[in-house]
Amino acid sequence: MSESSSRERSRSQVIVDPEPPHAPAAAPSAPAGAQPDGSRALDSLSTGELIRRLSEQLSTLVRDELALARVEIMDKAGHAGKGAGLFGGAGVISLYGVFGILTGCVLLLAQVMPAWAAAMVIGALLLAIGGLMAITGRAQVKQATPPLPEAAVDGVHRDLGAVAAAVERRRQR
């Protein structure tokens, strides 16, 4: 079972399902207040039974939300790693640009143009490449921040809202 379908199943159990997935099958003669699937209506359950079910379902939900958070953080860490690598590459390319400027000052194209102009052209080209790498690295790092599992946090907020709405509906009965 995929992680998202497990999470959705857990959510629907908290809100809708009167029985956890391992509930026994219905007996041929169902007691009064029983549903067609053999489970009892939520209204007929004792407080202790409701609390037991809530505890089971919440632990499953929390476990699933933590798994989602772990996946989300790993994804953001990957973006941060790529961004750091691109920043490192930008530094190396920029260093090559400096070397190009120094080498060009001494050796490059002294016959075609002034030696200083030829060295500046090559150095500027290498620095521009380094600048593009730095911009790309910055975009990767921005994708990784903030390092909070935003989808998991949104899911928890939706879950809490659904539970609060269900409690409010039950109070109004």
UniProtKB/TrEMBL annotation:
Pfam families xref list: Phage_holin_3_6
Biased segments, Basic and acidic residues type: 1-11
This protein's UniProt keywords: Membrane, Transmembrane, Transmembrane helix
InterPro entries xrefs: Phage_holin_3_6
Region: Disordered, residue numbers: 1-41
Annotated Low complexity bias: 24-36
Segments traversing the membrane: 84-109, 115-135
The name this protein goes by in its record: Phage holin family protein
Natural source organism: Rugosimonospora acidiphila
Classification of source organism: Bacteria, Bacillati, Actinomycetota, Actinomycetes, Micromonosporales
